[in-house]
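Database export, one record per block. Field names are fixed; values are copied verbatim from the stored entry.
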Amino acid sequence: MSNVPDFTAVILGLILAAWLGASAWAVWTGLAMKKKAAATMRQSGRLGRLLETSPALPLLVRSDGKLEASQRLMHWLGFDYLPAHISELHSNDAGMSRADLEGLTQDVNLAQKSGGSFTRAIKVAGSDKALLIHGGLADQKIAPNGSALLWVFDATDSQNQIEKLRAENEEAHAAFDALSALIEAAPVPMWHRSRDLQLTLVNSAYVRAVDAKDGAQVVEEGIELVETINGVSPKDAAAQAKEKGEPHERVVATTIGGQRRTTQVVDVPLGKSGIAGYAIDIQELIDSRKEQRRFNESQRDMLDKISAAVVQFDPDKSLQFCNLPFQRIFSMRQQWIAERPEFPRVLDRMREMNRIPEVRDFPEWREERTKWFKSTGSIEENWMLADGTHLRVIANPTPDGGLLMIIEDRTEQVQLASARDTLLRVRTATFDNLFESVAVFAADGKLNIWNHQFASIWNLDEEELGKHPRVDTLMQKMAVQLKQPARISEVRAMVRAATSEREQQSGQMSFADGRRFEFAAIPLPDGNALFTMLDISDSRRIELALRERNEALVEADSIKASFLSNMSYEFRTPLTSIGGFAELLDNEVAGPLTEQGHEYARAILQSVKRLGMQIDNVLDLSQSEAGALPIAKEKVNLNKLVEEIAAQFADDAQAKNIEMELQLDDTLGSALADGKRLSQAIGQIVDNSIRYTGENGRLLINGSGNVKQAVLHISDNGPGMSAGQQSKAFDSFARSRKKTGENVGGLGLPLARQLLLAHGGELTLTSEPGQGTLVTIHLPRQ
C-alpha cells in the first residue's frame, strides 16, 4: 500500500510535467504566431501601399453589382466617395458617360457569365482623364460567387499619345492621298522603281507618253520612257543615282506622244524605298533659248548699225557687250574687250584715250559712277571732252543688277543747234530787210511772224501786230488799202486753204494808190501758212513793153521766114535758067567755044550748083529751126554713107592737095535715120573742113560706136578757131572776119547741128587757134 501514493505522485508529476510542457509549447507557439501575424501585417501594409501607387487599380464587381475599390480609384473617376453599385458610376459631373457605363456593364455581365475577359477605354466626365479597363472573372479565393475583377489603368498620357498618333496617321494618309493624286495629275511623266530597279508605279502622264493602255501594262511589260542612249539605259541611270545617293540628272531626246522631244530626266534615290524619277519636257525651253539667242544676235547686229554707242555690264560689273560705235568712239580694241574687263577698268581705259571729261579727282569720279549699278533709276549726264566732243551718257541699271549705258555723240547736234540759233537770227534780220512783204499765219489763223515791209505796205501798226491778231480781224483792216476792198476775201480764203487744206494758191491785186502786187499763200511743213507779197508795178509795165516787143519780133520772124521762102523761090527761077544756058554753051549748042570759053561755062555751072545748095541750106535751116523739117527714117549703113560722102568731096580735096583719110571701124554699123539729111549734115562738116584747111592739109574721118550710138570724129589741121569764133560757129547769121579780111562762118555748122538734133543726136566742136578743129557727132541707133 505504500507504493500507491508514490505512483499517484508520479502520475501527478507526469501530468504536471505534461501540462507545463504544453504550456511552454503554447507560449512558444503563441509567440511564433504573433511574430508571423506581425510580419503578415507588415507585408499587407507594403502590398497596400504598392497597390495604392501602382498604375493599375482593382475594382471588384460582385454578382449583385456591388462595388469594392480603393479611394484612389474613386478619385480617378472623380468621386469623393465609393459608389455602392456599378450603376452609380455615372454622374453629370463625375464618373463615366452613360454610353461607357452601359458598355462596361455589358462587358462585366458577359465576363461573369462566360468567364471571358475584355478591354475598354473610357473617358472621365468633367476632365480630360482617360482610363483603360481590363476585366475578367475574379478568382474564387478573392471573391467567390461569380464576381468580376476589373483592373483600371490611367491611360491619359498614352491615350493622348494614341490620339496624337491617330491624328498624325490620318494627316499622313491625307497627305499621301493628296501626293498620290498630285503625282497622278502631274503633267510630266513620273515613276517609281523598286530596289531591284524594276518599275512598280507610273502616273497617267507616263502612260500617255509611251502610248500604253494603263499603268499595269507599263509595269508588267517594263515599258521604259527613255531608250538606251550611248550605252546608258534608264536602269543604268537609276543605278548611278542609287550608288551615289544623290539625284542623277541628264538631258536626252525622248519620244513623247509620238513626237521627238528633248527632256530633262531626273532619278531620285529614296533609300530603302527604291528610286523615283520624273521627266520634264524642255523642248520649248530649248527652242526659246535658241530664239532668244537669235534675237540677241539680231539685236546686237542692229545695235552695231546705229550711231549711238551701247555697252552692257553684268551684275559682277564685267563687260558683257558693246557695239561697234562704242568701240569706235572710245578706241577700244576687240582683243581687250574679249577679256571682259570690269567697269572701273573700262573707265580707266576711257581716261587713257582722253574720252572722259577733265576731272580733278578721278578716283572719286570713278567711284561715283560705279555706284550707278545700285541706283534706283536712270542717270543722264553730259560729257564735254577736251577735243570739243559732246557726249550724252544715259546709264540705266538692269533688273539683274547689271548696267546698260547708251552714249550718244551729240557734237553735231550741238553744232546744229548753235547754227540754228544763228540761222534764226539771220532769218529775222533777213525777213526785216526783204524787199518782199512776208507774214506767217499759224494753223489757228493767228499772225505769227511778219516783217517790216508787211506792216509798211498795209499801213499796219506794229503794236497791233504784236498782239497776233487773227486773219479775219487783220483782213478787215487791210481791205481799205485795195482798189476793190471786196477782194480781200480771196486773200483770206487762200490763207485758210494753205493752213487747213495744205494747198498753195497765188494771185494779183491792185491797190488804191495804183500799185500792183503779186501774192501767194504757201503751206509750210509745220502746219503754218506763208503769205508773201511782191510789188510788181514796175515789172508789170516792163512786161507790157516786152509783150509789145515780142509781138513785133514774132511778126518780124514771120516776115523773115516768108521773105526767105519767097527769095529762095525767086532765086531758083533765074538760077535754073542760068544753069541751063551755061550747060548749053558748054555743050556747044550755040556754036563752038574756045577752051577758055568752056572753062568759063564750067565755072558758071559750079557757081550755080553752089548757090543752089546754099538756097537749099537756107530753106532747110529755116524749117529745122521752126521744127517743120521732114525726117524720113530708115536703116542706113553708116560705113557706106561716109565712104560716099568722102568720094563726093574727093575732087575738092585733091584740088587743094588735102590728104583725106578714113578710119571706119566695124562697130560704126548702121542707124535708123534719114539718109539724105544725114548725108547733108556730114557733107556740110566735111565741106567746111576742106574749105578752111589750107594747101597740103590733112582731113581725118574716124568712125566707131557701141550698142546705143554711133560716133564720128571729123578733124583737120587747119587754122583752128578762137573762143569768140567758136561761140558764133553755130549762129547762122553771125560771121567773123580773119586778119586777112576773109569772112569766116556760114550755114554749114548751124545746119549740120540742126539736122543732127532732128535725129536726136548731138554735135560738139573742139578747136584751138593753130591746132585745127575737131567736130564730134553722136548719133543714136534708133
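Remark 1: The first strand starts at residue 56 and ends at 61.
Remark 2: Residues 3-53 form the longest helix (51 residues).
End of record.
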